[in-house]
Amino acid sequence: MTSINHASPTAKDIQKQKKDIRLLAVQKRLEAKKLETDDIKLKLLNVFRGFVAETLPVALKSENRKLICSAYMADASEIDPLPILTFLNEQGWQTALPCIEKGVSLSFRVWQPGDALVTGKFDMQEPRAEALVVSPDLVIAPLLAFDRFGNRLGRGGGYYDRALKALRTQGNVLVVGIGFDSQLFDIVPQEKHDEKLDFTLTPSGVHHSEAV
After folding, report:
1. How far apart, in Å, are the Cα atoms of 64 and each of 58, 60, 67, 78, 85?
2. Which residues have a Cβ under 8 Å from the Cβ of 188 and sit 6 or more positions away?
3. How far apart are CA 175 and CA 70, in angstroms?
4. C-alpha dihedral (164, 165, 166, 172), degrees to nearest 10
5. All domains of the chain, ordered by start, with CATH?
6. In terms of Cα–Cα distance, which of 141, 97, 100 is closest to 121?
7. Are the C-beta atoms of 147 and 179 separated by less than 8 Å?
8. Dihedral angle at the C-alpha atoms of 41, 179, 19, 154, nearest 10 degrees?
9. 206 phi and psi, to 5 degrees?
10. CA 53, CA 140: separation in Å to the nearest integer?
11. How confident is the model over 134-191, as pLDDT tens digits?
12. Sorting pLDDT into bands at 50, 70 and 90, what band is 59?
């Protein structure tokens, strides 16, 4: 009888799988971005509004204080979260953006629509250095790919994974990915250091992260 090797994939195997998916995901995201219309942006915003009304009150306990949300400034291929940040700001939330600090750390600094931005590492648009550093209650994370289990694939630098791990160690934080529907994959391979998404929002609706 022939034995079957059920050995778990090695770290090298997983990194190779990630690289292959990343190449495909980049192309999928570029194609989706070319087709992005105001209608698609409105659909995502409406999905988020419903998420805020139905899910956030249960998932986050504000303790009668102003909640803080960090998103990001989209590059040429990412789905744009600015309408979401504008909506939250109008609802009384404090809003923030990520900044890459010296070394390999990611911080979150207060920013609201209309505030000036500076160009940081990797040409990322960031708040000014004097902006207050905060700990968000809600983090809207960019992604290249995601799956129904909450696995997220980013660019590979690990900035978000390290920052999210630190935030989760401090207390209650909700991590939500946003993207195009075409960025949903059957399986996104994960390593021990990868942080999962609690939910992912696309123009078609809310994707709850399922238990494995």
Report:
1. 14, 11, 9, 34, 20
2. 21, 145, 146, 147, 149, 151, 152, 153
3. 10
4. 70
5. 11-208 (3.40.50.10420)
6. 100
7. no
8. 110
9. -95, 130
10. 16
11. 999 999 999 999 999 999 999 888 899 999 999 999 988 999 999 999 999 999 999 8
12. confident
Supply 155's token pair: 């660019």
Say which residue the tokens 């989209």 belong to: 74
State which H helix or E strand residue 94 sits in: strand 94-100
State the CB neighbour count (10 A cutoff) for residue 207. 20
| CA gap 136, 140 in Å, rounded | 10
pLDDT of residue 62: 64
In contact, 66 and 91? CB cutoff 8 Å: no
pTM confidence score: 0.90
Cα angle 77, 202, 87; round to 5: 90
Q: Which residues of 28-62 are buried (b: 16+ CB within 10 A; e: fewer)?
A: bbeebbeebeeebbeebbebbeebbeebbeebeee
At 96-112, the pLDDT tens digits run 999 998 776 899 999 99
Q: Tell me, what amino acid is at 105?
A: S
Dihedrals phi, psi of 28, to nearest 5 degrees: -60, -40
